[in-house]
Amino acid sequence: MNGSSVYFMAPHQVEVVDEPIGAPAADQMLVQTIVSAISSGSELLVYRGEVPADMPLDASIPGLTERFTLPSKYGYSAVGRVIAAGADVSREWLDRLVFSLHPHESHFLASAQDLEPVPAGVSPEDAALFSNIETAVTFVMDGRPVVGEHVAVFGQGVVGLLTTALLAKFPLSSLVTVDRHPLRRRLSTGLGAHEVLDPAAGLELKNNSFDLTFELSATPAALDQAIAVTGFAGRVVIGSWYGDRPARLHLGGAFHRSRMQLLSSQVSTIDPALRGRWTTDRRRQLSWDMLRDVGPSRLVTHRFELSDAANAYELLDRHPDEAVQVLLTYGA
9, 11, 99, 151: most buried, per Cβ within 10 A? Predict the structure, then answer.
């Protein structure tokens, strides 16, 4: 049989290519995709050709561990149904709804360790945002908010909005979010932010006033702003991936004496200080619980058929003021 796959051919050039799909090996399953979520952060870096040439796209995801070259498949939020299985696979997998860190393809082969059963009662569209909610859970775990702290989140894309939703559950003194797009600011308010700011106005009044700051905007200049508004011995959690774009920072002023911590955070690992009690499976279960609670599909603004994928990426690239979460659908 044949399937269809999204390929990044060159900067700003996406094509849907038909490819043959073999029968499952003894330990494999064939998944028919229902929906997949486009990441407006890392996938746009790939779309724009801003990925560093000397590193893999993601060393933790099978198929993405080699040095990045074009043309290439990419993506990591696919939800589908198991329609066939190899001889060594339990029949219990058949017809099961599953999530996979897999590129955008209509059908794909995967082993059991590469599939995550979607819990009962979770819709395919919510499940497609599982990787986003797990990333947000990781950011909050790394930030370790404390009762009564003043917290700021730069960037209210999907992961930023989900991080805001989780932080809103804590008894913080203030939760301030920053984004330049009015639509995202409105969504942020609905998810529990106490105050929402445009980065072009008012930030200078809040210098050194936050205990904990998250930089999730994927904009290098925002890191400098995040550092400026973080107070003595505060923490800045850097969840953005800037690709090959440099971040210009002003560290010659108050930062030098601030004893501030700049913390890189990424979902592929758990903080070594927590690994004695936290495993990936424990974090994954927590993420499913948080996904049920938040209902992230409310952030979906656009849906495109797989055949129209090029227009989906063009929308995200050119009109971030209109698009928050974009899904690809597969007619299944």
Answer: 151
Using an 8 Å Cβ cutoff, are 81 and 64 in contact?
Answer: no
Mean pLDDT of the chain: 92
Whether 232 contacts 258, CB under 8 Å: yes
Phi first, then psi, for residue 112 (nearest 5°) are -60, -35
Would you kindly state where each structural domain of the chain is located, as residue ranges?
2-128+297-329, 132-273
pLDDT at 56 > cutoff 90: no
Tell me which residue has tokens 């909050």.
140
> Residues 18-25: contacts with CB within 8 Å, 24+ apart?
21/107, 21/108, 21/109, 22/109, 23/84, 24/84, 24/85, 24/86, 24/89, 24/109, 25/86, 25/109
SS3 266: coil
pLDDT tens, residue by residue, 260-277: 999 999 999 999 999 999
Architecture of domain 132-273 in CATH? 3-Layer(aba) Sandwich (3.40)
What's the pTM?
0.93
Q: Decide if 5 contacts 65 (C-beta within 8 A).
A: no
Sign of CA dihedral 69, 70, 73, 76: positive
Residue 67 has pLDDT above 80, yes or no: no
Closest by CA position to 131, among listed 244, 139, 271, 214:
139
Architecture of domain 2-128+297-329 in this structure: Alpha-Beta Complex (3.90)
Percent of the chain whose pLDDT exceeds 70: 94
| Tens digits of residue pLDDT in 107-162 | 999 999 999 999 999 999 999 999 999 999 999 999 999 999 999 999 999 999 99
**Torsion-angle region of 64 (φ positive above 0: left; ψ -120 to 50: alpha; else: beta):** alpha
DSSP 221-249: HHHHHHHHHEEEEEEEEE----TT-----
Alpha helix segments (H runs only) across the chain:
42-48, 124-127, 130-143, 158-167, 182-190, 220-229, 280-294, 309-318
Q: Chain centroid to CA 64: how far?
A: 16
Q: Which two tokens stand for residue 318?
A: 């050119």
Half-sphere exposure of 267 (CA within 13 A, CB side): 21
